[in-house]
Amino acid sequence: MYWKKEFKKGKNYLSDRNLKEALKCFESAVTQCPVSSKSGLEKSLFYLGVTLKKLGRSDSAFRCWHIARELKDNGHSTEMIQRHSNKYGQPVHTFNIEDDKAAFMSIQLEKYIKMKKVSRFCSEVEKDVIKDIISQHWVNLLQSGIFDHMSVDRKLKFFRNQNIIFPVADISYLEKDNEVIYTDFHSGHQLSMNDLCLCGSGILFSQCCGRIKTSEELEVGDF
Ligand SMILES: [Zn+2]
Predict the structure, then answer these.
(1) What is the 179 CA–ligand 1 centroid distance (Å)?
(2) Are residues 145 and 212 both part of a single domain?
(3) Residue 171 belongs to domain spanning
(4) Which terminus of the chain has fewer CB atoms gathered within 10 Å of its CB, N or C?
(5) Considering the entire predicted model, what is its pTM?
(6) How far is ligand 1, taken at its centre, from the CA of residue 201, in Å?
(7) Of 157, 156, 154, 173, the residue nearest 165 (C-alpha)
(8) Which residues are in the CB-under-5-Å shell of ion ligand 1?
(9) What spacing in Å lies between the alpha carbon of 180 and ligand 1's midpoint?
(10) In terms of C-beta density within 10 A (0-12 exposed, 13-18 middle, 19 or more buried), how is residue 116 classed?
(11) Contact 215/59 with Cβ under 8 angstroms?
């Protein structure tokens, strides 16, 4: 089995701290591992995530761990997600304000991408322009100090309700009727980021079904 060889080699490189080579091996293990081997894929994705994290690529690491978690609940990937998530379910930053900014960027990027017919960026220039517009909006919000004392749930609602005018003619996205609201049917309350997820994963809603995808995930999509 070719993927197993690559996986083993990867683990050796990882323990020798040769991250570049480890990365190559785990990437090829993930690609070569047959889809039928759930545990093989899960293991390979977990270690690929660990290597990416060590390389400072937290967003990519999260992508790996979330896919691995879907293959196997309560595995090592779940543990990593719990350990490294911020209150939005994204990779934690050094400062709180960076966590807020990353969540805001993701929410607005997702809005933009969703309203496009092709659901993705068509060029690097487009991506840069849109990110600049969102960043500028963020700076204005930050200076206003308006969300300084809001809870995570209120901040999220506030971030989602910010309608930035992007340079496109189609504004149909402004209709909010397709927004998903997660509700606990037992209590009838809207689910908070600090609640346990309703899907039964045993982890926080903010780290599971309610998490804010990273900008990288939105740009690249899943594997
Ligand atoms: Zn969930």
Answers:
(1) 17
(2) yes
(3) 96-220
(4) C
(5) 0.84
(6) 6
(7) 173
(8) 197, 199, 201, 208-209
(9) 14
(10) middle
(11) yes
